[in-house]
Amino acid sequence: MMEGMAKRSPTVRSLRDRLAQFTASPPPDRRTEKIDRRAALEALVARGTQWMGSLPEGCLRIEEPVSLPARAEVSTAFFARAGLEDPRGDGPWVVLDTETTGLESGTGTVVFLVALLRWSDGEGRLVQYFLPEPAGESCFWTAVAREVEGASLVISYNGKSFDLPRMRTRMRLSRIGAEALEGPHADLLHPTRRVVTSWLASSRLIEVERGLLGLRRTEDLPGSQAPEVYRSLQTEGRDRGLCAVVEHNRADVLHLVELFCRLERIYCGSAWRDLPAEARLDLARVLARRGEVDDALEMLTSVRGSEDAKLRARAHRLAAHHLRRAGEHARAEGELLAALEAEPAGLDTRVQLAKLYEHRLKDLPRAHEMTRAALSGLHRQREWAGASGGRVGEDQALLHRLRRLERRMGGPRGEH
Questions:
Q1: Domain 30-267: CATH superfamily, name plus number
Q2: How far apart are CA 326 and CA 60, in angstroms?
Q3: Which end of the chain is more exposed for a tag (fewer CB within 10 A), N or C?
Q4: Furthest-apart CA pair in the chain: how many Å?
Q5: What's the rounded Cα separation, in Å, for the pair 344 and 354?
Q6: Residue 168 class from Cβ within 10 Å (0-12 exposed, 13-18 middle, 19+ buried)?
Q7: What percent of the chain has pLDDT over 70?
């Protein structure tokens, strides 16, 4: 019987192969693919595209003038406050964004579209370069490098970690010098995160545009779909939204200019008043760390009107911390007492008050009182939350402080 099955198996396989022909997808029509591919590129040409280089080793260039705010209105303090590199020289600023075949950082990731917005005083010029074929990379990167050359500042969003490393890799593989990318770079991701991290779902540019700028893109193709559009064009010859990818790339750099100006008004103007209380608190912390305590205290004052008691307490504690460092101990005491009023169970506030009374105001009885209250509050937390209540070793630190205060005051003061 086994021998019979073995004899029939070739026939069975042949039948399965024949049946599979009826269910398999028909082979792609190469003529249609070529038409789709040509139509996609012709659609770009209709947008004012210019062919750069010789066929087929070239690239497409799209240029348009744009109206931009005057650069002279940007405060020079913004770069320091936001932790950005200062512009170098009087050359144009270049706002940059790329579209790639993936998020990987290896040499297989191709940058196929670059938007470069050259921003001079009161005017701008937006140029996009598109790579139709990998064979045109040398022409593509030569044109991009020429566009960036002479810039006194490059502005991007996550460019330090994403765009520029991939651009450098492809330029070096094409034997094009990447020196044009080595100038001052203002990556807006990090100053944006400091402003939005406590109240927006994420710091993705599309989320920041909606939450911070009030911009909503209509009929936008998400950047995550751009790699598939390019791959389909290369492997199948089909246009699955090339013009939409180009428009998305264009919108990215235009919105980055708006984000740059908005951040400048937040860090150096009065636009911080429009932010949620959580964001004002985060921004105050940034300024206070830079030693700009007066501006930080002004922001913290605005948070004190928040309906969130914990947020009010945090604002008071942060103000007290920096007042204490500035030697204004009486004002620091007032801030901590206000924090305790906003959050009566605040263990950290009592500990800070105990330290202030002991080391700065030299009021040992009140330091002892606050330490005992903090220890009692910690014990109550432990009763409610079990062994996980309170930080490890916190009770021992409070007991040590309490005993030290008692020794300094001449003996124990009641039960602990």
A1: Ribonuclease H-like superfamily/Ribonuclease H (3.30.420.10)
A2: 59
A3: N
A4: 105
A5: 15
A6: middle
A7: 84
Relative to beta strand 111-120, strand 153-156 is unpaired
* Among 286, 302, 282, 389, residue whose Cα is nearest residue 345: 389
Is 299 in contact with 283 (CB distance < 8 Å)?
Answer: yes
- Whole-angstrom Cα distance, residue 229 to residue 238? 8
Pairing of strands 153-156, 123-130: unpaired
Confidence of residue 32 (pLDDT cuts 50, 70, 90): very low
Burial class of residue 78, CB neighbours in 10 A (0-12, 13-18, 19+): buried
Summarised one tens digit per residue, pLDDT across range 235-279 is 888 888 898 999 999 999 999 999 999 999 999 999 999 999 999
